[in-house]
Amino acid sequence: MFTDLAAPADSPLLENLNPEQRAAVTLPAGNALILAGAGSGKTRVLTTRIAWLLQTGQVSPGGILAVTFTNKAAKEMMTRLGAMLPVNVRGMWIGTFHGLCNRFLRAHWKLAGLPSTFQILDTQDQLSAIKRLMKQFNVDDERFPAKQTQWFIAGAKEDGLRPRDVEARSDDDRKKIELYQLYEEQCQREGVVDFGELMLRSYELLRDNDPVREHYQRRFRHILIDEFQDTNRLQYAWIKMLAGNTADGRFVPGDNSVVAVGDDDQSIYAFRGARVGNMADFVREFEVSHQIKLEQNYRSYSNILDSANELISHNKKRLGKNLRTDQGPGEPVRVYESTSDFAEAQWVVEEMRQLMRDGIDRKEMAILYRSNAQSRVLETALFNAAVPYRVYGGLRFFERAEIKHALAYLRILENKDDDTSFLRIVNFPPRGIGARSIEALQDAARAAGRSLHDAVSAVGGKAGGNLSAFVAKIDVLREQTQGMSLREIIELVLDHSGLIEHYKADREGADRIENLEELVNAAESFVTQEGFGRDAVALPVDELRQSSVSQGLDPNRPLLDEPLAPDAETGETLSPLAAFLTHAALESGDNQAQAGQDAVQLMTVHAAKGLEFDCVFITGLEEGLFPHENSMSDYESLEEERRLMYVAITRARKRLYLSHSQTRLLHGQTRYNIKSRFFDELPEGALKWLTPKNQGGFAPSAFGYGGGYATSRGAGSSYGRETFASPPVPPQKAAPSHGLRSGMQVFHNKFGEGTITALEGSGDDARAQVNFPRHGVKWLALSVAKLTPVT
DNA sequence: CTCGCTGAGATTTTT
DNA sequence: TCTCAGCGAG
């Protein structure tokens, strides 16, 4: 099954590739799976393969379809490809699943049953649309929280299911399906699509329209998919539509080649619909003839790599892969146990300062954690030590409220029926249109079956007056902006909407105004980058046509290659404004406010995927946190936690630090945590314990790992924020007043000897959960039960 | 309309 | 404990 690694034809592109990489780059036509370990040069292989296919004349640029998950990955691929070959990368179908589906739907909007100006709802918009819907139909939001409905709808779409396809197992299900149906109708009426809809609509159009499907099947000779382990059911089905035929329900691979690149060990998005099983299905259904493993790691020293390998070997469901490196062992992986999360943070900062003294750049140091809430303590410690840091995550540029407001104005210009946008701005800035007027308007709109914008004339009275003024303002703006450049449109809207004025009056509005000005810049650079200049559009088409001719392909077939995705029949393209709005929805922008600065990097493990640093600190390695308590109960999600840990470890190039804390302030309570089981799954030889192993008297093996943590009110007060001034506290000080600790062996007069598995409360309320070998697990009030430590 | 209170919820997240 | 959404009072 595995491909012969004989050296293929020479090409400068193939220089400096190892045999596996080279084999992957030069795979013959046919379907293939590339198992690419962390740091194995996956992106390089993917891009080089595209370049090689083009260079050897096996395919024209138009015959390539390369799909990624993030805009960042897509951009990187295009940049690298552009550096390898003098080819117009913008015109190629390289992009995210959603970006490509958008392009496809823009070209075939009519066939897809969409208005040509359809706009995209992001997650926020989707939630507010659902809330609005549920209010309208008087759905009990106690029983059906809007968030849950959103989750349900998105989940269904990820599985490729329309309301009628969803199986109802309960009355609640039936209600949710009904809401899903109503939501769909609302979106259709308003001319908007959510992220899931982009995928699902595209899939359905391919499935139901033979000429369209056949056209694209003929066209995309080579399909390449990055991060295949993260694909969901629908995305996999979409690929099948492009790559083969599903006549009479059975899939038969087509003539085109599909190369899937992925790493099952790095699958960490099951919670949002990703299905690792797609990899195995792919091998079977696509009758994969070549599988290649990229196991040579170019990133980390072997102590780090061995740790990763050993850890992940505890997962049973794997395709099987072991990373290796030619680099030496390097530094040992350092492990630190602290008494409190404050002390842990303090230790991290101290270590970092030492690393800085050793000449390591701050931006080469990262602190990783399982959940966002953990960043706080770390931030405080860094702040107090005056170490510059940057936190990933949080609001992105296009998600900021003021930006969303401005975009809503712009969207309503483009599509007057977009009720979500209408509601967002109808009274922002405030113009005397309150809840009552809006309700009246909504009733009128529903009665007339029209959009809010169109229903305004039906509302009388003072409310009607204000509303009419608003709509008139919008209509005037729409008129005025005809023929204007994108920049002029935005400036005019910012001015006439009153947004700028509104924020000027606000004491804390300065940042918001700055962001709004940044929006103008974003639009400006969008125009230049996307090639909106008049001649910039024409050029790539010509080039492509020429290259098609030289490849002996039909020059007259429709070329849907321009970034603007013109209508497939008329060639009409979106207005710059509509294109920019699409861009804003599909690419929520950076959240790296001060990117480029030399600052320490803080992020969740999820956010770290795909990144690498010289020095990595993985903090909070405690049972209940990492692995997370919600994932400890079932085996599948525990394996995902382990993969998450694997991802975290493999981010480090030179040094890796692991830490856990005996206590942690969480939700305002002090939790007593035992160290993560993952420590027991690492090779002892690669580790160096900075604190004595198992210090603190507990023996994890004595009682297994069943939710061994407890909470205690007020116990955290003894480690105030002041402790930041002092060096790390020795572990002994953490014990609460009763002197008991998780893991301790204790004696009880009636039950005999047992192990403390959890502690909760303080003072008179203090309770301990004790596991007695003969009597099982008991909760004991410490004020009543006499527990004596066994020495 | 804005302010301030109350109560629920508090993994992970891209598009 | 903290945050944020939703709601009632001024």
UniProtKB/TrEMBL annotation:
<keyword id="KW-0067">ATP-binding</keyword>
<keyword id="KW-0413">Isomerase</keyword>
<dbReference type="InterPro" id="IPR027417">
    <property type="entry name" value="P-loop_NTPase"/>
</dbReference>
<dbReference type="Pfam" id="PF21196">
    <property type="entry name" value="PcrA_UvrD_tudor"/>
</dbReference>
<comment type="similarity">
    <text>Belongs to the helicase family. UvrD subfamily.</text>
</comment>
<keyword id="KW-0238">DNA-binding</keyword>
<feature type="domain" description="UvrD-like helicase ATP-binding">
    <location>
        <begin position="15"/>
        <end position="301"/>
    </location>
</feature>
<protein>
    <recommendedName>
        <fullName>DNA 3'-5' helicase</fullName>
        <ecNumber>5.6.2.4</ecNumber>
    </recommendedName>
</protein>
<keyword id="KW-0547">Nucleotide-binding</keyword>
<feature type="binding site">
    <location>
        <begin position="36"/>
        <end position="43"/>
    </location>
    <ligand>
        <name>ATP</name>
    </ligand>
</feature>
<keyword id="KW-0378">Hydrolase</keyword>
<feature type="domain" description="UvrD-like helicase C-terminal">
    <location>
        <begin position="302"/>
        <end position="610"/>
    </location>
</feature>
<dbReference type="InterPro" id="IPR014016">
    <property type="entry name" value="UvrD-like_ATP-bd"/>
</dbReference>
<dbReference type="InterPro" id="IPR000212">
    <property type="entry name" value="DNA_helicase_UvrD/REP"/>
</dbReference>
<keyword id="KW-0347">Helicase</keyword>
<dbReference type="InterPro" id="IPR014017">
    <property type="entry name" value="DNA_helicase_UvrD-like_C"/>
</dbReference>
<feature type="region of interest" description="Disordered">
    <location>
        <begin position="547"/>
        <end position="568"/>
    </location>
</feature>
<dbReference type="Pfam" id="PF00580">
    <property type="entry name" value="UvrD-helicase"/>
</dbReference>
<dbReference type="InterPro" id="IPR013986">
    <property type="entry name" value="DExx_box_DNA_helicase_dom_sf"/>
</dbReference>
<dbReference type="Pfam" id="PF13361">
    <property type="entry name" value="UvrD_C"/>
</dbReference>
